[in-house]
Amino acid sequence: MTDRKVRVRFAPSPTGPLHMGGVRTALFNYLFAKKHGGDFILRIEDTDQTRYVPRAEDYIIESLNWCGLNPVEGPGIGGEFGPYRQSERKAMYKDYANQLIESGWAYYAFDTTDEIDVLRKNAEANKETFSYGIASRENLNNSLKLSAEEVTQKIEEGDNYVIRFKMPADEDVTEVDIIRGSVTFNTTKSLDDKVLFKSDGMPTYHLANVVDDHLMNISHVIRGEEWLPSMPLHILLYRAFGWEETKPQFAHLPLILKPVGKGKLSKRDGDKLGFPVFPLEWKDPQSGDVSKGYREEGYFPEAFINMLALLGWNPGTEEEFFSITDLTEIFSLERVVKSGSRFDPEKAKWFNKHYFQEKSVEELAELFKMVLAEKGVDSSGEKTTAVVTEIKERCEFVSELWEQSSYFYEAPKEYDAQTVKKRWKEDTPSKLSEIVLMFAAVEEWKSDSIKEAFSTFMNEKEWGFGMIMNPLRLSLVGGNMGPDLFVICEILGKEQTIQRINSAIKVINN
Ligand code: GLU
Question: CA angle, 92 as apex, 91 and 95 as ends, to 5°?
């Protein structure tokens, strides 16, 4: 690496919610910047007004925040290379487009959309594809064909025009991609004359992206594989502007593949298989449809990030658990693979389980208290910590804590019919009534002392343990689930334990 300061940017277009592949791009940019003591920048590429979706920008920023991928420059943050929203930089792009016209690297094209549609359809009818470029441009309505006077006249008369890049003919454009190695594109074979500046006065992605990367002093462009075909045009734009010396290095990240079958992971796969593809929940402003988010599904950002890091990057060891700090130390683009990585929703859960188990009981209890508060359940006192201690190991998500422990907070409303049938005998009520009396006399209401009192009592009575333990558990929790029975008694408290046994006697006997 040269001694140039590392400056990378995450440059999403606010056209909808950020896909998890987009978060991975942001993550790899962030890690690369941190690893090299560089800057991670957020730039919003909102030049395509037809695809602009309100609230998408806020969504992007909130997602990055949730993941802990905080940019040092960006909209709402500032920085010396701002503004960081391309719509706010609108005024400057025209000059750059003009510069290319003057140097002969670009031209005005006056063809209307309808005219181009006709050409496209005609080509299709001949089983060909129309492309505006080297082979066709000389016969089209543009400044390469028209005289200078005609062009000036058209512009003065207010004719709509776009500015197109004039692709040089038959040249092999070669560039080294950090991940893919040397990549070559032939201009005549694979590149058309892309629009750089649109009739609505806005630049296209290509122009704005290259101009901004240059002006923002970007050292490395790290982005998804879908942008690889744009790289030769971008390389030629750097040449056309005379910016080759400070041109960034490129790295195109591999695709994230569907869990099953071929192709890129899409929202539809998530809907079909029931996992989120977005970091946060997203409500479509038009249809009102709500898409799941990792955050709302109960994933920890650490788990989400750890899982994403391994989609396309490998540490070179068997290790799988990495905190973001670990990653900033060991990440390298050289260890990013070329081929697509398959996303496995089960693996995502597995990561969450790991981070869930890593959390302290106190932390989980705090999170659980929020769930309880939403349900209107009183979670004051020590009880919640005790509950979490008992059930933590059975869970992977905070949301499961309630499923596993609701009986600690709510007395059973019904009793599992099968257990009743099997375990509730004629003499169970009278035996349980004796247990109640014995419990009432226990002084220190701690699981150990309850157990001791219980065992002494049972030995005196010579009653079979199973015959009592099962109905007792049924009375307390409504079924045969839960941790150690005496621990349940302790957490419930003496009064509640006795009350539940008495209610079970009443309800089940009727
Ligand atoms: N605006 C592009 C996107 O939405 C950015 C691509 C790039 O990083 O150059 O992904």
Answer: 110
